Amino acid sequence: MSQSLQFLTPSRSPYLTLPKQTVTSLYRRFPVIKLLIGKHSFPAVKSSSSDLDATSSKVGAVDNGQTVVTGVLSADSVAVRVQSDSGSLEVDTVTEAELKENGFRSTRRTKLVCTIGPATCGFEQLESLAVGGMNVARINMCHGTREWHRRVIERVRRLNEEKGFAVAIMMDTEGSEIHMGELGGAPSAKAEDGEIWTFSVRAFDSGLPERTIIVNYDGFAEDVKVGDELLVDGGMVRFEVTEKIGPDVKCRCTDPGLLLPRANLTFWRDGSLVRERNAMLPTISSKDWLDIDFGIAEGVDFIAISFVKSAEVINHLKSYIAARARDSDIAVIAKIESIDSLKNLEEIIRASDGAMVARGDLGAQIPLEQVPSAQQRVVKLCRQLNKPVIVASQLLESMIEYPTPTRAEVADVSEAVRQRADALMLSGESAMGQYPEKALAVLRNVSLRIERWWREEKRYEAMELPDVGTSFADSISEEICNSAAKMANNLEVDALFVYTKTGHMASLLSRCRPDCPIFAFTTTTSVRRRLNLQWGLIPFRLSFSDDMESNLNKTFSLLKARGMIKSGDLVIAVSDMLQSIQVMNVP
Ligand SMILES: Nc1ncnc2c1ncn2[C@@H]1O[C@H](COP(=O)(O)OP(=O)(O)O)[C@@H](O)[C@H]1O
Ligand SMILES: C=C(OP(=O)(O)O)C(=O)O
Ligand SMILES: [K+]
Ligand SMILES: [Mg+2]
């Protein structure tokens, strides 16, 4: 027996406000609550029943898996905002302006990820990044409290709602790496050549003695040997182990430098990385599981897993997410940053929804001169297997302190763009650097310039794209996308249009890296956000039907009305509802 209750939202008002107590008691009495908006009725869903007792929680209504109503349940009221849905097209203001002013050819294909930290966590700072082209905001659970991260997520969500952006959120786990603790509250500490520092696994109750570093891994003092080399942050500072005294390890600084709180530690013996017992630590620690629960509850779009060793952990996490996050589909990104992840690369990428070349830790685990070829290998394999790939770490490291990049950094960014990675990522440059917006502008400008050069010179390195589909229907979709992309290049069309509910057809087109931009129309805001990580896709949210003719007419008139396309533009359209390729001029 299902009891249900319907609310009529006040006419024209996009808000439905009810006292919280009323809502709580209503949910006790009625398992199903519906909201009536116009002629349509939508079930109101709350994120979880326990949330009703919290001071703030989310309420939303879902129509065919598509959220049309979202709201916040506060201490004493519930405000439900109705997104006007009929005939609207959601695209951000930056894309819209870019299309209007410069046309299709000038849109940026390479996507940009910014790590959010103290330098960029304010609403206005986040807005500047979004305006500057940030497609994905990354939060690193290695730093900051969950409360801090929650506030950042809230601000990004608000930015999307109020300003039409589709900035996705990526949560990055801490992982079971060995790292230093806080520096007794200091923002950094300088280690000078020849100084003796103590690395200890002891807990110091009353203040940290001078030149002492806490290590988070209990087996540390047992595992290191006198003569080992200790690398902080992949070699930014180096020490040599000189003496072991119980839980304390005395080390002499051999390469001086700045120590930052919670910096990563690796130790080397006879020129190779030591992977004693810490290799046995779980990829996802108990703290990571709590962070993952937090990420699921907050509805993040991507979860990036640090120090992935095999496909098993990815499969495990994916089934965990599937069981818990029924309404949302969180993509799992494997961070390639260890020797094991390179060893098991193909199975890891096949199991994941995407990968990150995490060059920071990777460069601490394999010789630096091997990092570029590893990057190229990961980028290529991801493209072949149709998984988005992010190139991360030290792209513009000097811009943490200086307003212009080095020529070498620009060359590095160019190379990643030339490899046609899906996305580039800023870490410290945007999290705690002096010039976050300038760094983002460098990524943007270099991407645009290299992409243009690439198209002008037709430096087309055709890549063998193997079949990735497992069913016959998948194979058809693939063939359609491969052919449509090829036609788009040969006919020099202005844009590819793809109508896709899950985003799959859009990613298949993106994989072909065509010359023209890909307008991806999708029915849900969450798919729209997720597509924002993929090369060349301009994601729009749009309600559409199974009737392609009417979809196209509707899209043309909406885009024309907003000045984003004009009569005569040549377009190729594909969809995952109708297995066909249509070539047409905008009427
Ligand atoms: N949430 C945060 N709170 C404080 N500092 C942060 C935060 N996120 C990042 N940072 C700072 O930015 C630096 C670069 O970020 P990132 O590369 O993600 O981390 P890590 O250096 O630990 O690999 C960090 O070392 C840290 O100093
Ligand atoms: C991106 C990376 O991971 P993190 O910043 O979490 O260490 C990296 O190691 O390059
Ligand atoms: K991390
Ligand atoms: Mg790392």
Automatic annotation (TrEMBL):
Subcellular location: Plastid, Chloroplast
Location of the Pyruvate kinase C-terminal domain: 478-577
UniProt keyword annotation of tRNA processing present: no
EC numbers on record: 2.7.1.40
Name of the protein: Pyruvate kinase
Keywords annotated in UniProt: ATP-binding, Chloroplast, Glycolysis, Kinase, Magnesium, Metal-binding, Nucleotide-binding, Plastid, Potassium, Pyruvate, Transferase, Transit peptide
A GO term, aspect molecular function: ATP binding
Pathway(s): Carbohydrate degradation; glycolysis; pyruvate from D-glyceraldehyde 3-phosphate: step 5/5
UniProt source species: Rubroshorea leprosula
Main location: plastid
Oligomer status and interactors: Oligomer of alpha and beta subunits.
Highest taxon, organism lineage: Eukaryota
Gene Ontology cellular component terms for the protein in this record: chloroplast stroma
Record keyword Coiled coil present: no
A Pfam match: PK
Cofactor(s) required, per the database record: Mg(2+); K(+)
Domain Pyruvate kinase barrel residue range list: 108-439
Membership in a protein family: Belongs to the pyruvate kinase family.
